[in-house]
Amino acid sequence: MWPAIISPPIPRPDCPRLKAPIVLAHGLFGFRRIGLGPLTLAWYFRGIPGILQAAGNRVLVTRVHPTAGVVRRAKRLGEQILEAFPDEPVHLIGHSMGGLDARQLIADPAWEGRILSLTTIATPHLGSGIADFAKLRVGRIYTLLEKLGIEHRGFLDVTPGAAAEFNRRTPLPDWLPVFSVAGAPPHEEVCWPLRRLHAALEELEGPNDGLVSVKSATAFGQPLPDWPVDHLRQMNWLSPEVPTTPCPRVARLYAEVVENLWHVDEDWQHRGERESA
After folding, report:
1. What is the per-residue burial (b if ≥16 Cβ within 10 Å, else e) of 7-16?
2. Maximum CA pair distance of the chain?
3. Which domains are seen in the chain, by residue range?
4. Whole-prediction pTM
5. For a Cys-Cys bond, which of 119, 156, 228, 265 suits 18, CB 3.0-4.6 Å?
6. Is 3 exposed, middle or buried (0-12, 13-18, 19+ CB in 10 A)?
């Protein structure tokens, strides 16, 4: 079982405490933790679990195959949720491809009632032109990886063509509150690894976070206000403001996501109280 508490509490902005647990799902190339024994070198959601835990929330950071396709990743995501919280529903927050994994999971009718809400952050619901470009440039590498038996389906699942088919298979569920967040930073605030990609995607798809356009990120569920941070800084990486501690701006953005879920959580609690009365 993955532990629900995975990092020490840290100072936080105002953030509500939800009764139901929060599950964080990572994106392509993602991980839960990189470390050597007890030494932690990096977290995917850098400092974010501690921010939410400091408000009293229970948080599970899941770990799925970093480059596998959505179907395989969703299966593992569901297994970890059931291992950690077998008897209660959860709020699910997916970053990037993690949002697609979550959509694949909730497409299974067996999960109705086990997920209270889904919030996707910078998820390529319409795919990303960057993935198409990568496919054209390194398609031979994908063929080689396939021959070597190395999983690489995840790269293909975020292309626009694959996204169109995925959207036909996994429509918006009528039983679940679903929200979406896009990243839309000004170009001068995009971190250096993503600046060229941000400019290229701007020409192809308009405002974006360096990897996923606003149009693609908000194509599924109820859009929430755009985040003024790029795809990497959404995970609290490469912060120009506070390089060694969680960035206050990013902390506040995640707190706002939880604030948006407070009414969903309250409705669930009240339903439970009525049913037990």
Report:
1. beeeebbebb
2. 62
3. 22-276 (3.40.50.1820)
4. 0.86
5. 265
6. exposed
